[in-house]
Amino acid sequence: MDKNLAEWHIDHLTSVADYVGNVGVRTLLFTPGRSRHLTEQNMRDEPSNPVNSLETNKTIVLDFIDKAVNQGNIEAASMHFGERYIQHNPNIADGADGFKAYLQQLKQSFPLVRGEVKRIFAEGDFVIVHMHAKREPEEEGLAIVDIFRLNESKLVEHWEVRQPIADSKLHANSII
Questions:
Q1: What pTM does this model have?
Q2: How far apart are CA 25 and CA 13, in angstroms?
Q3: Mean pLDDT value of segment 67-79
Q4: Which one of 68, 73, 105, 116 has the largest count of C-beta atoms within 10 Å of its C-beta?
Q5: Quick one: pLDDT at residue 114?
């Protein structure tokens, strides 16, 4: 990290903590060569309106994962989609129909696919899931982190990151 950027981080550490604490998790945006400042990156088409408790939001996401991935019941899982579903995974088409098509292909190719939720967190209208997914029972599988945004009890947005499960040469800690 260059010296100017490091100094900026130190100078603004309190501001970032205050900002995140006041408005929730947002994106820190800066452009090299321009003044660096915090902005709220609005990726939403409709206003946030969490009508449920955090526990209810987690229950909705868990039910969706169980129905969609473990049971392969796409129609039952579809009840959890909002009117508009924004997909950020570059390998899945946007919208509920994009997810349905992806899941149909996944279940056709890997009928024994399963996802085991290891951790689940909720903050505001977001639910974050840390999952161990296996396409086949004998494989090591993937560690997946899904981030869902809910609005009025419906899934309206999704992000995902994944990595293959591998042993570390640096420590004995598991990624799941």
A1: 0.71
A2: 15
A3: 95
A4: 68
A5: 97
